[in-house]
Structures are given as C-alpha cells and as structure tokens.
Amino acid sequence: MFEAWGHALFRRRRLALVVTLLFVAFAAVWGTGVFGKLSSGDNFTPPSSPSQREANAADQAFGRNDADVVVLYRSATMTVTDPAYRQAVTAALASLPRADVAAVTTYWSAGSPRLVSTDRHSTYAVLQLTGADDAARHKTYDAIKNDLAPASLGAAGVTARAGGNVAMEVAVNNEVSANIAKAEGFSMPVLLILLLVIFGSLVAASLPLAIGGIAILGSFTVLRLLTMATTVSVYSLNITTILGVGLGIDYGLFMVTRFREELHRQPTVEQAVARTVATAGRTVAVSGVTVAVALTSLMLFPVDFLRSMGFGGVATVAVDVLAALIVLPALLAVLGHRVNALRIRRSVPPPEAARSAEPADEASGAWYRLARSVMRRPLVYVSVITIALLALGAPFLRISWGGTDARTLPAASTIRQVSQTLDSQFPVNSTDPIEALITGPGGSAALTSYLHRIDAIPGVTGAQVTGVKGDVTRVDVGYTPAPVSSAARHIVTQIRALAPPAGAAVLVGGSAAGLVDELASLGSVLPWMALLVCLATFVLLFLAFGSVVLPVKAIAMNVLSLGATFGVVVWIFQWGHLSGLLRFTATGSIDPTMPILMAAVIFGLSMDYEVFLLSRIRERYDQTGDNTVAVAAGLQRTGGVITSLALLLIIVVGAFSASGITFIKLLGVGMIVALLVDATVVRVLLVPATMRLLGRANWWTPRPLRRLYARYGFKEDSPAPLPVPAGSVS
Fold first, then answer.
1. Does 362 score more than 70 pLDDT?
2. Which of 157, 181, 401, 662 lies 20 to 30 A from 97 at CA?
3. Are 438 and 504 in contact (CB under 8 A)?
4. CA dist 263 to 260, 273, 327, 340, 724, Å?
C-alpha cells in the first residue's frame, strides 16, 4: 500500500506541491488568526463537580463575584481613615470608563475590615470588568491598565499596583506568546545549523524544517476550526509548537535519510521515492498514530486544559504525518539527486545510517560495535540501568499535589508581588475564601449552629454570611493554610462532611474546593487513560512488528523512563533543587495536570523513537533471521538519527525551559530530561540488552495472532535476504 502511494505521489508530484502551496497560503492568513480565538481563563474544575455547581448557583443568585482586577493602594504617611487618602483613591476609580468597569468595591463603600492591611496604610479595590467572556475581559483590562495609577495618586502620595485573576491571565498569555516567538526565533536558526552538520547539504537540511513549518501552520488552522465548536486553551499553542517542529523534524529527518540511502540502491528516483515511502513512510505512519493515541487520551479528562492539549496535540501530529507522507515525497520526487545540492563541504557522504546496505560495511560502524558490546553483557546492562532509573524515579513516590497561584510568575512580576502582599499584610484569604452556598428554608438557629461547627474545624479562622437572596445564603470561610495546599483541601473535606442545616442543602466551592474536585476527577480518569494508551500501543506495535513481546517490552521501558523523569521533576520543582539556577520559586507541590500532560507527550515521543528503531531491526531480522545481527544493524541504522532527533528537539524545548512561567518551565525541563534518558540510556543501551536477553522470544506470537498479523499487519515486501556478517553473536 505504502509503496503504491509512493509511486502515485511521484507521478502527481507537481499537483501535490501546488495544493500544498495553496494550503500554506490559506493557513498563513486564516490559520494564524487562532491567536485571537483561544481561551485563556482555563477552568481546571470539572463541569459537574460540586465546586463548579456552587459557582454556577452563586452566580445565578448573586451575580458574578470574581475579583477580576485587584488594585492595591498604599500610602507611607496616611491611613485609610485619612480623608485625603479616600479622596485620591475614589477619584482615581471614578475616572475609569463605566463601559469597562461593571462594579467597584472599596473599603469605604463596603466597610469591610478585610480590605485593609494590618498597619492600615494599605487597602485594595476589587474591580469587576465588563465583557461576556474571558477574552472580552482581557481586552477590557488592556484598555484600562494604564489608567489604574493616574498622576493624581502620585501627587497625593499614594501608590497603586494591579493584580487579580484577569491581570494574571493576561500576564501568563503574554508570556506564552513570548515563549512561542522565542522558540521559533531561537530554535529555527540553530536547528538549520545542526541539520546542515548532519546532512552536509542546505537543500536536505531545509526539508525537515519545511515540514515542521507546514505542521505548525496546519495545526493553527485546525485549532481555529476547533474554536468554532469548542473551547481551546491558549496553552495548546505550546504543545503545537513543540510537537509541530519536533515531530516535523523527526519525520523529515527520517524520511530524507532513507531517501538518500535508497538513491544509492534503486535504479530510478521513482523507485527511491516509492521505497522511502514503503519503509520510512510506513514507520512514520505507525509512529504518528501511536503518538496521536497517547495525546487522544487527554480528551478523556473533563478538565478544559487537558482536553485542549489533546485537541492541539492530535491536530499537530495529524498535520505532521500528512506533510511527511504527501508533501515530503513530492518534494523528494522533484529534487531527486539534487537533494544533496548546495553542499557546505566538498564531499558529502551519506549519513552513517544511509551508507551501503552491505553487512561488512554495516558491521564496521560505531553504533553496530556499541550494540555488540552491550549484547555481550546484557544482564549487567539491564540490571544497572534498571536500578539507576528506579533510583531516579524514587522521589515521585513522595509527590505532593497542589494548584497554581501567582508564584508561577517571575519574582519581579507586579501581579505576583500584589498577591504576596495580600497574603502577608491582609486578613487571610481575603480574596480567596472557601465558599459555602446554603439553599433551603433552614432557620437562623440552624444556620448559627452550622457556622459554629465550621468555626470549630482546625485551621478555620472564621465563617461569616456575605450574602442572602431568598432562600439562598452565601457563607465565606477564612482559613490559615494556603489555598493550594493539602491542609486547605482537608478543610474543604471536613466542611463537606458536616451535616447541613435542617431542611437545607450545601454546596462548597472556592479555589481550594475546586482543587479537591480536580484531583478526584483526574484520579478517576487516570486508569482509563493508562488502559487506552497501553492497549492501543500494544495493538499498533503488534500490527507493525508481528510480535506480542516487543509491545509489552516497549511499554515497560517507557513506564520506566517516565518514572525517572517524574522523579527528577519532583526533585527539582517540588523540593526546590536548582531553583536558583532555573530561576523559579518552589511551592512544595506539583500541579496535577502537568504530569498527566507530560505522560501523554513523552510517552508518544518515546514510542516515536521506539518505532524508528524497531522498524529497522524488524527489517533486518526478516532479511537475516538472526536476532543479534538485526539488533546491532538496527541500532547502526538509527542510533545516529535518534540521537540527532533528540538533540534537535531539545533545542526546541529549551526555549520553553527558560520560560518565566513555572509550569511551562516544568514541562520544558521534564521533556529535556525524558529525551536525554530515552534517546541515550534506553534506546542505545537498554533496548539492545533486553532484546539480546529475549533472543528469538522477541518475535514470538501465538498461532492465531500470527494469522491476524498476516492478514492485517502493517508490512511491506522486504528486499532480498542478506547474509549474516561473520562473527555475529549467537
């Protein structure tokens, strides 16, 4: 099938390229408009959870009560009782456009002591902005942010700094956009230089980058289409950029390397294109489906953030695969031997993986010799590497889950400084209480008793009624621990365990309650995610390689690699090691969505490399029937390519590891660790060692499944059998 597709593309290569140019032009104009369509106020709380139902009911009864913008005022000489202080602040707020600010709450309008600092020199105003959704409120904030500290305040000796939910979301969005620009601006020239070193030819080096560029534009277009039907997070752009460039280069490098090899074997360019698609193209298709399945598992979660990442990731992989299987073969068909044009050195030998297929030449390669060395002592390598990876993963056993707050921003951020001031100088949880919504007739005595029981919970600083409308009563509960801490979640659990007032029902919400519900939801879906990924991976690898042992081994190794990565992430980001070097503030916990997102992305990329390696091993095993020779030859053919791919992707991810947003930095650092472990220790050492130990058992399949593979397997006719190199390990 794939070989026939290669012949068809060769014959219609110009048509394919014309269609591609039209698509790229459309994507560049319409697809890039996705930046204005994405959601930035991501809801991490499941829609049907108690905390979300409480928020919906409270909004319906009392109207929206979010602290969109918090403006923190301070005077070194005046206290809030000074009339000049009040006049300066109220005049500044009154000057804000009514069309932009729906409501303003100050100490002087509400009389609430929670709005005044302990030294009474600081106060804050809560602004609710106009706008039907997050995007509209972000635009409103951008319109007024420069007016929040007018010159009149400075003249009166009052300073003003802005924070709050919308301000934080806008800051994070700006950082995300800057990260993408930085990644593209920094990584593309570096990637081109490295590809030039790998290929020695400007034309060959530019092809993987072209596929990556097409993939990014194509995924932007698909994401914009998705925004017309569902909510898509702005953070999906990070995954789109990483996967678009990373997989595009992976597939491009793999295909171009194979094409240059086939040019030395095949009599015509058409045959070279056809064999490239039949071999490397088949591998790309299997790899792409495997990566897409891993990312599809994110769509199982009801949390918008993870679902958006799944949408963006699958869209990017799909475009990458289509570009590699349609655009790249057409380009190779047009270029032919000119793929080696514009050489940067006089003689451009094919890469090590693209040299002659003769066993004698192959056996002289460095990767071949390394594999043979490993396979002479397989038990030692397997034991040492497994123990080392388990040791790296040990910190993951002590992970502490938590949420994301203003500490995710850089220390110099004004928004973070405002949040820290509110926490340290104002009554606890003044802007983020636990909220209990009581619905029902109840009675004053029953309500008073209920409030007393809440007050008696350890860690609670007080419960007070903040709103009554009909038979709906809103109670705000102050508490000592940080909202994202496990202690705060325990308080939520205890409040929910209390019997409600007689004849009434209670819903408990707020950010701490939302985190409780988020963790419960993620925990209930996680086993289904693991089942889907493992089962789909097993089926795909079986259909690709005709073995039931190799898929199980591949899944086990990926789990081992993931565990090591998560252990390093906990050691760095939860325990705070290297926080000074990496310039972030450790919070003592990890956002639960990050390991899930990392698991899907890293598992998919690890399988990407596994499929590349096993495809070459299987190809040589079919030719020689010798497991040891096949493993060594497969590593010789792909060792340099996989190492190059990992290095190139690390360059792409490196820009995100330098992000000022902690959870994006965590994702970048985690992926770099995973790539280093996977492309070096696992693929180069552990895979050859385990395959040597298993021997012919690598290729074992029960008789009924053999018939299934013969009928439905993803296979192509192999070239003629090759002799086994002399001196092979038995």
1. no
2. 157
3. yes
4. 5, 8, 19, 11, 24
Query: What region does 266 belong to: left with phi over 0, alpha with psi -120 to 50, or beta?
Result: beta
Average pLDDT over residues 549-554: 94
Strand 101-105's sheet: what is its strand order?
101-105, 122-129, 69-75, 158-163
What is the pLDDT at residue 350? 46
Q: What is the mean pLDDT of residues 515-529?
A: 94
Average pLDDT score over residue span 76-83: 94
* DSSP per-residue letters across 286-349: HHHHHHHHHHHGGGGSS-HHHHHHHHHHHHHHHHHHHIIIIIHHHHHHHHGGGGG-SBSSS--P
**Nearest Cα to Cα of residue 722 among 358, 368, 369:** 358
d(CA 47, CA 671): 30
Least Cα distance to 244 among 672, 641, 601, 534 occurs for 601
Residues 643 and 166: beta-carbon distance below 8 Å: no
Per residue in 679-719, pLDDT tens? 889 989 999 999 999 999 999 999 888 888 888 877 654 45
Q: What is the pLDDT of residue 641?
A: 83
Q: What tokens appear for 23 in the block?
A: 């698509």
Inter-residue contact 79 to 120 (CB < 8 Å): yes
* CA–CA separation, 514 and 53 (whole Å): 10
CA distance 488 to 508: 13
Query: What is the residue type of 539?
Result: V
| pLDDT of 322 over the 50 cut | yes
What gap in Å lies between CA 251 and CA 608, rounded to an integer? 9
> What do you get for the CA distance between the two ends of the chain, in Å?
35
* Residue 574 to residue 223: CA distance in whole angstroms: 33
Say yes or no to pLDDT of 348 above 70.
no
339, 204 contact by CB (below 8 A): yes
The pLDDT of residue 347 is above 60 = no
Q: Pick the more confident residue, 659 or 400.
A: 400
pLDDT band at 112 (very low <50, low <70, confident <90, very high): confident
Annotate 343-382 with b (16+ C-beta within 10 A) or e (fewer). Answer: eeeeeeebbbbbbebebeebbebebbebbbebbeebeebb
Give the C-alpha separation, 657 to 219, whole Å: 22
Would you call 266 exposed, middle or buried from its count of C-beta atoms within 10 A (0-12, 13-18, 19+)? middle
432 phi/psi in degrees, rounded to 5 = -145, 60
Here the tokens at position 654 are 């490196």
Q: Which residue has the tokens 């009924």?
A: 704
Mean pLDDT of 423-430: 83
